[in-house]
Amino acid sequence: MAGYRTRWWAVGAALVVAVGAGLTGCTDGNDTEPRPTDAASAVESAASQASDFWASATAEAERRVDEITKGIDVRDDVTLGRPTTADDGRTTVEVTARNTTDSTKSFVVQVDFKNRHGDFLDTVVVTVSDVRAGGSGEATARSTHKLSGDVQAEVARAVRY
Questions:
Q1: Are residue 96 and residue 49 in the same domain, yes or no?
Q2: Reduced to 3 states, what is the DSSP secondary structure of residue 149?
Q3: What range does the domain containing 115 cover?
Q4: What average pLDDT does range 7-33 have in this prediction?
């Protein structure tokens, strides 16, 4: 998860630099006033980088789930609690995996965080390890950064192995 934090920090830093450069370095050659089009272009570029970050985060989560080649899709055996905001501002949600087999199994669950309109905010992968036969196990999914507004959580993928 440190890689996600690093990339998120880098995107934020790029946005600050791009907007700052757009607002302070834009003149018409006569050193009069900044050109709004340059600032808008800088913001658009930063937004594109942020979009690339979200695509990268989703691809990484999917890659981690895909690594389990002998897993069984068990989204119906996984439930999520109600998302809450932790003291650090990150969104958390309890993940419960029910093992319906006759032997101990582990689960990998991809949780997507979305706003109330269904727009993607974040994704994380959590492991629920060593759930006994016929039992349930729990883990906590925690967003990679602060999320605001009415955050919803859904099970994007769940694999038992």
A1: no
A2: coil
A3: 72-160
A4: 44
Instruction: Provide the b/e sequence for 48-58 (b: ≥16 CB within 10 Å).
Output: ebeeebeeebb
**pLDDT 10s digits, 78-89:** 999 999 999 999
Q: Are strands 136-146 and 90-98 parallel, antiparallel or unpaired?
A: antiparallel
If asked whether residues 90 and 153 sit together in one domain, one would say yes
More confident residue, 3 or 140: 140
> Can you give the pTM of this predicted structure?
0.61
Given a contact cutoff of 8 angstroms between Cβ atoms, the answer to whether 95 and 128 are in contact is yes
Q: Which two tokens stand for residue 82?
A: 């109600």
Counted domains in the chain: 2
**Rounded to the nearest 10 degrees, how much is the dihedral formed by the CA atoms of 20, 22, 24, 26?**
170
Residue 159 tokens, joined = 């694999």
For the chain, first and last CA: distance in Å? 22
Name which of 140, 144, 46 is nearest 89 in CA terms: 144
pLDDT, mean of residues 98-126: 96
All residues at 6 or more sequence positions from 132 whose CB lies less than 8 Å from its CB, including other chains: 99, 104
